[in-house]
Write a structure and sequence with these properties.
Pfam families: Glyoxalase
InterPro entries: Glyas_Bleomycin-R_OHBP_Dase, Glyas_Fos-R_dOase_dom, VOC_core
CATH topology: 2,3-Dihydroxybiphenyl 1,2-Dioxygenase, domain 1
Shape: globular
CATH superfamily: 2,3-Dihydroxybiphenyl 1,2-Dioxygenase, domain 1
Helix content: 10-25%
Strand content: 35-45%
Domain VOC: 1-121
Largest sheet: 4 strands, mixed
Number of domains: 1
CATH architecture: Roll
Protein name: Glyoxalase
Number of strands: 8
Radius of gyration: 15 Å
Length: 122
């Protein structure tokens, strides 16, 4: 079984196009407000607020919404090159390159504002 991750997004087609740029494949089904993609050893589920069980209001009335800082990490061979490529196609950068002990990372955003970490190991 492939590990899965779910994001709440505002626009399913825009999110699918974004994740295709990151190497994900749309594996369907696409049912009003939902899409499923595979890539980087991960299954990604995309839900619009209110769509399916994952998009429903919480018991306390909180409505699912995009954003936050929890994120998937995609390992890339050359962080700077990948950032340049993605910026050229209009991807929003949340945090530019940060160098740490384990490597370099940057955080980009999908069209709904959900973060995705790009990481190049040291």
């Amino acid at each position: 079984m492939i590990p899965g991750f779910r994001y709440i997004v505002d626009d399913i087609p825009a999110a699918v196009a974004f994740y295709r740029e990151l190497g994900f494949e749309d594996v369907g089904p696409k049912v009003g407000g939902f899409a499923m993609l595979d890539g980087h050893g991960l299954r990604l589920f995309l839900n619009a607020p209110g769509a399916g069980g994952a998009g429903h209001v919480a018991d306390d009335g909180t409505v699912p919404s995009p954003g936050g800082w929890g994120r998937i990490q995609i390992v890339v061979a050359d962080l700077d090159e990948e950032l340049r490529r993605l910026v050229d196609v209009g991807v929003q950068v949340r945090t530019s390159r940060v160098d740490g002990v384990g490597g370099a990372q940057a955080v980009i955003e999908d069209p709904a504002g959900n973060p995705v970490e790009l990481f190049t190991p040291a």
